[in-house]
Amino acid sequence: MIELPDIFPGTAERLPSEIMARRFDLVIMTHVLEHCRDPLLGLRNAAAILRRGGLLWLEVPNKDCVHFRMFGAASECYDAPRHLHFFGPNGLAALTKQAGFEIANTRGGLARHHSPSWRATERRIRNYLLTHQASTIPPDHTFARSVFLLLKSACTQDGAV
After folding, report:
1. Phi and psi for 32 in degrees, rounded to 5?
2. CA-CA 20 to 30 A from 98: which of 34, 73, 121, 124?
3. Residue 38 is part of which domain span?
4. In the chain, which ranges are continuous DSSP H helix?
5. Confidence category of residue 90, pLDDT binned at 50, 70, 90
6. Nearest to 108 by CA among 64, 42, 69, 54
7. Is 44 within 8 Å of 100 (Cβ atoms)?
8. In the structure, what pLDDT confidence band is assigned to residue 159 with cuts at 50, 70 and 90?
């Protein structure tokens, strides 16, 4: 029989008391901060539950990446209205330092922006913007544009798409 881990309802800003009473070697916040009303509080809470020398693994969409800059509101990374905040590397570094963290490593990704399902979603968003006469219409996310993005992002300093 598989034993399931304890699950407690809460948010990064309002951790359950069962969590606040414990200390962890690792806290993982994958695509959390962009949904927080108060990302700094979420990071401070993560720091509060880490053991001394513990590690925070943090991942957010990069608003400064080539993909986000090209597709803007049609980017699946934009994800309004669910994303309340947008972070670039410098802003995220400043926020994590303000919360008391020391940055050990940063890394950009090259992966999922190029899948057929991702492109299809972004094309649906673009078509919606077209039919609702948005003031700015991003380019269509075609396969050719995806290849261009992949090549361009592979040549950027941090490799971030």
Report:
1. -115, -50
2. 73
3. 17-154
4. 17-20, 39-49, 66-71, 89-98, 116-131, 143-154
5. very high
6. 64
7. yes
8. very low
